[in-house]
Write a structure and sequence with these properties.
Elements (H helix, E strand, L loop, with lengths): L11 E11 L2 E12 L3 E5 L6 H8 L7 E6 L2 E2 L5 H6 L1 E5 L10 H5 L1 H5 L4 H14 L4 H4 L9 H13 L5 E5 L7 H18 L2 E6 L2 H7 L2 E6 L2 E6 L1 H6 L4 H7 L13 H4 L1 E2 L5 E2 L5 H11 L3 E4 L7 E4 H9 L9 E2 L2 E2 L5 H11 L3 E6 L2 E7 H8 L1
Parallel strand pairs: 3-8, 3-9, 6-7, 7-8, 12-13, 16-17
Antiparallel strand pairs: 1-2, 1-4, 4-5, 9-10, 11-18, 13-14, 14-15, 17-18
Helix pairs in contact: 5-7, 13-14
The protein binds adenosine-5'-diphosphate (ADP) and magnesium ion (MG).
The site of magnesium ion has 2 residues, from helix 1.
Length: 375
């Protein structure tokens, strides 16, 4: 089957009175929810509250008993389910790569079924591997068992992206990873949102992840929607005790106004700083030798930035300068309020910023650490 694009972009995804029961029990009860085009909507709730069922109804892996789900005003029951799914990226925790196919085969599977030419598939796979920070020359031909958990998860992300869907459904995609890998993949996730402007429905049970990634958060309890709103709305006007408990309004955020960047910034290990004049090739040597995925480049506050290993690999192999791989880094003064810093990091889609003493880089601030400190 050759599928067509059934929607070019998402204006809205609307669930109206959606109910799903298993036997006597409601998995999802009378759910009304509208996801806006371009937003990241988080579904959060305890295990068994109905998050996965709600998500799987959005791509028709589960059919509701009653109610309707529509995209841009068209009821999704009108679409062929397989065609619908090829227009929606679906990423789950154990992404289920096919063990006998190489990375390239796994990512290129659907395009192959769709009849793309081999050369086009290879090129798309290469671009996507770069996008998820897996240098294609190293990873393209590996088998799934030759990848770490985080690498497999990135391949899963690439596979979900290859048909270029305007909508992604993600079900605890980072749940099984350790916190460092989790932070890295959360960054990558953020890039998808920022660079591609996709609409994303994301399931988690981790409130910090929800705050970090979500534009709005929907709290589900016992098959029902309790409240949906921005992090600020949930924190400052929780609908009930449960919401207050989940977002921890009482303990958290009450004292954040009093804190400053200097209270949570960490000393910057000079190992992470590259010489500003260095070429891409020697930066690559240095970063490989030190095992760095990210390095900072600092000459003056105006030009401060960071480079990612994969971009350095690309710059080095195409004879480009290191500057072309450079991304700007948010800068803070030690006296900046922590709340302001958090809001800026989030707006810029970055997970770290550099803290200057005068005009010298002395400390580094991670958004993760801000959030962890509030728990
Ligand atoms: P969550 O993702 O929030 O953990 P689920 O949507 O997986 O919750 O499940 C919601 C409820 O529906 C749970 O009580 C679960 O046991 C039940 N449930 C989910 N899928 C099935 C199924 N295929 N058969 C029977 N019960 C199910
Ligand atoms: Mg689930």
């Amino acid at each position: 089957m050759i599928s067509r694009k059934i929607f070019e972009r998402i204006e809205f995804l609307r669930l109206e009175n959606v109910t799903k029961r298993y036997g006597e029990n409601f998995a999802v009860r009378n759910l009304n929810l509208e996801i806006k085009g371009g937003e990241v909507l988080i579904l959060i709730g305890k295990s068994g509250s109905g998050k996965t069922t709600a998500l799987r109804m959005m791509n028709r892996l589960v059919e509701p008993d009653s109610g309707s789900i529509s995209i841009n005003g068209v009821d999704i029951s009108k679409f062929d389910p397989i065609m619908l799914r090829r227009n929606i990226g679906y990423v789950i925790q154990n992404i289920g790569l096919l063990p006998h196919l190489r990375v390239s085969g796994n990512i290129g599977l659907i395009p192959k079924l769709e009849g793309w030419k081999d050369e086009r598939i290879r090129e798309a796979v290469r671009d996507l591997l770069n996008f998820v920070s897996l240098p294609p020359q190293i990873f393209m031909d590996r088998y799934p068992h030759e990848l770490s958990g985080g690498q497999q998860q990135r391949v899963g992300l690439a596979r979900a992206m290859i048909m270029n869907p305007p909508l992604f459904l993600m079900d605890e995609p980072f749940g099984a990873l350790d916190s460092l890998l989790r932070a890295q993949l959360q960054d990558e996730f953020y890039r998808i949102k920022r660079e591609l402007g996709r609409t994303i429905v994301f399931v988690t049970h981790d409130i910090n992840e929800a705050f970090r990634l979500g534009d709005r958060i929907a709290i589900i309890d016992n098959a029902e929607l309790v409240q949906v709103g921005t992090p600020q709305e949930l924190i400052f006007s929780p609908a009930n005790e449960l919401v207050a408990e989940i977002v921890d309004s009482k303990r958290k955020y009450r004292h954040i106004d009093a804190l400053k960047v200097k209270d949570l910034a960490q000393p910057l290990d000079k190992r992470y700083i590259l010489d500003p004049g260095v070429s891409a090739a020697s930066a690559l040597d240095y970063m490989s030798a030190e095992g760095l995925e990210i390095a900072l480049v600092f000459k003056s506050p105006e030009s401060a930035g960071y480079v990612r290993l994969t971009d350095v690999v690309k710059a080095a192999s195409s004879g480009k300068s290191l500057e072309e791989a450079l991304k700007p880094l948010p800068l803070f003064s030690p006296e900046t309020s922590l709340l302001e810093a958090l809001i800026r990091l989030k707006a810029e889609g970055e997970s770290m910023g550099l803290v200057l003493e005068g005009d010298k880089p002395e400390n580094i601030l991670f958004s993760d650490r801000i959030l962890q400190n509030l728990v």
